[in-house]
Amino acid sequence: MLGARLPLALHGGGGLAVPDVGRIAVFHPAEGADLGALDQRRVHIIQPSKPMYDAFDAAGYGCGVACEDRYVASIVCLPRAKAEAYALIAQAAAVTDGPVIVDGQKTDGADAVLKALRKRGDVSGPINKAHGKLYWMNTAPDLTDWAAGPALTEGGFWTAPGVFSADGVDVASAMLADALPQKLGKTVVDLGAGWGFLSAHILTRDAVDAVHLVEANHMALECAKRNVTDPRARYHWADATTWAAQDRVDAVVMNPPFHTGRAADPALGRAFIAAAARMLAPSGSLWMVANRHLPYEDSLSDHFVKIVDLGGDARFKLVHALRPKKKRS
């Protein structure tokens, strides 16, 4: 927990010193991260996740999805993906004139990153607390070899570190794409569109007038814009669980995420199901793939009149849900 370690480093004898004037970048903090040890007016949150971005914005922080000019200090909150973690540290080092601080849980690779940084220069700390570490480089070395951004995969799609299925098409999405019928309706929503694989597949149908790609991860959506160039595509950087279509849609297609941290969180998939039901026309359909062990059946029955099991395999289940139920008053 950043809020447990940062005060110790700054005020508890840890030896970390941050300049008294100038902006401080905080890369990818989790929602609810305690930044009370810093002057809020000086903090610039860099957060690609729309729900987390909105939470920090509502709390009064300056927010963006990319760096703005230079900073007197920066804090990198380690993500789970190793390539993304290294890329964020390289990005911070390139735009920071003072200390580059790294904070993360041991389960997110904090020890491995510390070991790698020590091979590149002097590292102070670490501050060990709450199953994590905080450490810093007062003068960061050139880490451009760690930098990484959107790249073209062997399969011909653009992806980026930290984006779901960054190495290529995931098996579940490919399975759903193969199960989709030729006739989906004129207006389709790809809920949690990622880098756009399902939308690209849907847009091979001439009868489709529009596909709305709804995705919370800004970088994933930027990749989708490269992968899906059809003029019928509409892009929305938004929380899929709260986004609302302007008009009712004919079909929703989705491979919903089921992690908010390391543990599976079925509530996230249930929220996707509820959102799909809200935006569908009375005769609309949901086409969905999910891990077979996740308990979505009750939620599907709560929101749809008819549920059709399309099979799948031992790992994934394919579902077609028809006719959303009217919202109870």
UniProtKB/TrEMBL annotation:
It comes from Ascidiaceihabitans donghaensis. It comes from the Bacteria. Coiled coil: none annotated. Pfam families: MTS (PF05175). InterPro entries: DNA_methylase_N6_adenine_CS, RsmC/RlmG, SAM-dependent_MTases_sf, Small_mtfrase_dom. Residues 156-319 form the Methyltransferase small domain. Its EC number is 2.1.1.174. Gene3D superfamilies: Vaccinia Virus protein VP39 (3.40.50.150). One of its GO terms (molecular function) is nucleic acid binding. The gene is rlmG. Keywords: Cytoplasm, Methyltransferase, rRNA processing, S-adenosyl-L-methionine, Transferase. This is Ribosomal RNA large subunit methyltransferase G. Transmembrane segments: none annotated.
